[in-house]
Amino acid sequence: MIRILADSSTMYTKEEAKKLHVDISPLSVTINGKSYREYEEITDNEFYDIIKQGHNPTSSQPPIGEYMEYFEKYADDDILVLPMADGLSGSYQSCMSARNAQERENIEVIDTKTLCGPHRYLLQLAVKLRDEGKSLKEIKAVLDQKAATSWSYLMPQDFNYLMRGGRLTPLAAKVSGYLKIQPIMTLTEDKKRLESQGIARNFDIAINKVIKVLKENGVDCTHKFFISHAFVEEQAEKTKAKLIKAFGDIDIEIHRLSCAFITQGGPLCLTVQTIEK
What we know:
It contains eleven helices and 13 strands. The radius of gyration is 19 Å and the shape is globular. By secondary structure, it is α/β, with parallel strands linked by helices. The longest helix is centred in the middle third of the chain and has 16 residues, at 116-131. The chain has a six-stranded mixed beta sheet with strand order 10-9-8-13-11-12, with helices on both faces. Strands 2-1-6-7 form a four-stranded parallel beta sheet, sandwiched between helices. It has a three-stranded antiparallel beta sheet with strand order 4-3-5, covered by helices on one side. It folds into two domains: 2-27 and 62-147, Dihydroxyacetone kinase, domain 1 (Rossmann fold, 3-Layer(aba) Sandwich), CATH 3.40.50.10440; 151-276, Hypothetical Protein Tm841, Chain: A,domain 3, CATH 3.30.1180. Strand 6, helix 4 (91-102) and strand 7 (107-109) form a beta-alpha-beta unit.
């Protein structure tokens, strides 16, 4: 039997994942001096209310001990682990350390090279392949190939979060806020960190730029599209309409970002992501 473990970057709760016969290890957030496991001990709305009181959050990956316990629990089974991208979190390295400590060959850890929407899709694909009877090695080969096809763009609207994360200098954050310009962030080519894709005069122009770049990179209706956001439902729906107009009859989903990713992108941020189906 193949056991599948992922972290909550997939935007699955433990209860939802159980229906897929998957285990989820939650990411954690710390705010106002208290730590919470997202989806279990705090909701995004509760988290947002605390942020609005002026408290600054931090996030962390599941501890290595949690992976060790999981590997020991299923000592006789094949195990496939899909953590958030190496470089964007310590989850991948923690998984690898736990795997190496077990000295087992029937544990595969995937560098998903992504997060959130495409990460969710990779988990769903892993479940589909498992249920079709594919082997651990066969599933890993498919996931490695698909992981390399994802694209991610972040449109933040609270520049203080990017400044605290070192992604914008204090001066750039102040200038961006003052001029009301819209930065566009994307993953680096190695998928290990965020970098600036450019700026736009407003959010609508930023989305148009993202659409242009996606088309230049060969994204079309054969890809799965995701919009994830932090409390900007109206913008998410407008973005969905723009993407459908630009790409036609696409497979597209809208999700609310979890607490850990609101910590990184800030309240009111929105992401556009794609991955080859």
